[in-house]
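Why do we care about 3D structure at all? Because function follows from shape, and shape follows, mostly, from sequence. That is the central idea of this module. The next example makes it concrete: a single protein chain, its amino acid sequence, and then its structure expressed as tokens.
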Amino acid sequence: MRLRVLAAAVLFCLLGIATVASAQDAPPVPGARIRLTVPCELVQPPAPERRNFCTLVGKLGQWRPDAIDLDVDGRRSSYNLSTVSRLEVSRGSRSHKLLGAGIGFVVGVGATYHVFNSGASSSGSTSACNQSANQDAIDSSACLGIYGLGGLVGAGLGAFVGSRFREELWQSVPYGRVRISLVTQRRLTVKLAVAF
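And the structure:
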């Protein structure tokens, strides 16, 4: 057992210089957008009785060792850190343009495939890409190119629509807890966090 621990320690030291740092992050600066989760009985005006915890979003007024002040709609409220069950800081927002592009591509390819392989139309002609049903059908490699082009058009439209949907990113902020992190500084990254 001791030999394994010693071998692991030597291997860890050989992979990179370990930095032991306290992950007790500095508190957010006043004016930062934060989100608190506190018991609902502390919230003014009172929340419905069926809820245990309420989430408040506002700007950080002041951070003290035992309390935090939150500005919500021009009103400042103070909350004791022992009553706060979760504290998060906003890290900006992101759009869903890649997801929209992916969905748009699939829909574009599917719609193009349906249009070019839909069978008989009202004029009596068969599909434009089905060579077994139509001797004048387009070559299969050209049809693949048309499907890809339809997918690209769909991806463009999907990316545009996805960019209009934004989501705020939140990062938890440790408070009142000691954390220790070990991180190597070379190619391989090993992280170990111990919380008390």
